[in-house]
Design a protein that fits this description.
The protein is an alpha+beta fold. It has 2 helices and 8 strands; from the N terminus they run αββββαββββ. Strand 7 and strand 8 form a beta hairpin.
Length: 179
Amino acid sequence: MKAYKRKRGSLVGFGGVRVAAVLTLAIVAALLVACGDDNSPTSPGNVIADSPPPPPPRPSRANVSVEVLSFGGVGSGQGNLFFVEFQMTESAGLGANINFFRLEVFRATGELEERREIGADEIVAVTGSNRLEANQSRTESVGFLFRATVKRGRTLRLTVGFTDDRGNNINIVEQFVFV
């Protein structure tokens, strides 16, 4: 039997050839596992997309428009009854709550003569909700009783106040001048 002397820094000696072959085989196997094959989801070229795309970003503010569909006034012994029918539309994809409907009468000089307002609590009590949903329209008819008289040059200002779902206050104003 032949005795082997171990050389420092060498695998020759205690079956060094076999140890080197086993280590080489282990390294190659580890590299193959790390690379994966084409059917593996860890392969960089094979991405599995099973989640839906992210939703589009929400708008920073509701886009609300108010269109007056009809407007009229009737004189009575107690004053003038003004009625307004209007349509509110949200088009940015962000809902809003209606805070108030306000009608103001201004003299020809621009001085405020009278103001009437219907608040959110009254809107909810009459219609059941003060909500304008995202991308929806809502039509309302409201009446206001004024002591102010209707004369040439006077202005009626209708304001609809909203707070959108991000907390932005939005006031839409429409004006009418008596001629």
